[in-house]
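Many introductory courses stop at the sequence. We go one step further.
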Amino acid sequence: MTQQIYCVTTEGELKPVAEADKNSCIIILDQEKRVVYTSIPDTAPVREKFIAARLAAELKRANGLVYKIQSLPST
C-alpha cells in the first residue's frame, strides 16, 4: 500500500480512514511519490486547519525530509 488516508480529529490526532469525507480535513501520505497531501475544506474551523497543517509537518518529519507537503483544492 503506497497511500494512507487520515482524517484529522478535533483532538489533534490522525485517524486512518478508508474513504474521505468532504467536510473534514484529510491528509494523504503517498509513499511512492513522497508527498504529503492536505485537503482542508473552506468550512473547517480555524483550529482544525492549524491542526491539519501541524500534523502534515509531523508526518513529513517522521517519514523523511525529502517528502513535500502539497495542498489539494477544496471542492
